[in-house]
Design brief:
Layout lengths: L8 E6 L1 H18 L9 E7 L3 H8 L6 E11 L5 E9 L7 E9 L3 H11 L5 E9 L12 E5 L5 E2 L15 E5 L1
Parallel strand pairs: 2-3, 2-5, 5-6, 6-7
Antiparallel strand pairs: 1-9, 3-4, 8-9
Helix pairs in contact: 1-2
The chain binds guanosine-5'-monophosphate.
Guanosine-5'-monophosphate (5GP) binds next to strand 3, strand 5, helix 3 and strand 8.
Length: about 180
């Protein structure tokens, strides 16, 4: 077995406690804003896999209104820390007339969320809103209409709390900048 000699250090950004507090604030805002939904027609969280799955699990448990969950798979990054410039989207969703909240891990250039939004809007939801754990406004190339943002972050490569680099660091409970 060959030894992996790559050593990465992580600069801490947001602790477990800070993340938890911010998510409960977002959950309250979502619950207040969507108080029109009912058990018969609950809010639908659509989680963008893979990076948003831990965020979405914690967020779901802070939302106090009727709420369902479904998933969409998007990949815009390959094995390197740069955007591939194209997005692959896979889903099996049915969202016509539903109030939809897209839950994303990071909005960087905005390309992924723009392409997912266009696809979902073509399916005629009652409404479509965007919630992202992290926003990198300095990296934006495509406009993104974000309603709920966890944290605004610098244009650096971030890992932890479900967000990986080549499937590493997802299990870190906190968020930090990956230094190469
Ligand atoms: P965008 O299409 O907005 O440029 O990129 C969005 C996607 O790229 C995110 O959902 C995430 O998967 C990935 N991405 C963007 N910035 C980072 C980052 O700092 N760290 C990691 N691990 N992924 C990122």
């Amino acid at each position: 077995m060959s030894e992996n000699k790559t050593i990465n250090t992580i600069t801490p950004l947001f602790s477990v406690e800070v993340i938890e507090k911010r998510i409960s604030e977002i959950g309250k805002a979502i619950s207040d804003d969507f108080d029109m939904v009912t058990q018969d027609c609950p809010l639908l969280l659509i989680v963008v896999l893979k990076g948003a799955f831990i965020f979405a699990a914690d967020l779901l448990r802070t939302i106090t209104i009727p709420c369902g969950i479904d998933f969409i798979h998007a990949s815009s990054y390959g094995s390197e820390k740069t955007s591939s410039g194209s997005v692959s989207i896979k889903h099996n969703l049915s969202i016509t007339d539903r109030h939809v909240l897209l839950v994303e891990d990071i909005i960087d250039t905005g390309l992924t969320i723009q392409q997912i939004s266009a696809e979902l809007i073509s399916m005629k939801p009652a409404s479509l809103s965007i919630c992202t754990l992290l926003d990198k406004p300095n990296a934006r190339k495509h406009p993104a209409d974000i309603t709920y943002t966890g944290f605004v972050v610098p244009d650096a490569f971030i890992v932890g709390y479900g967000i990986d680099y080549n499937e590493r660091f997802r299990a870190l409970p906190s968020l930090g900048i990956l230094n190469s």
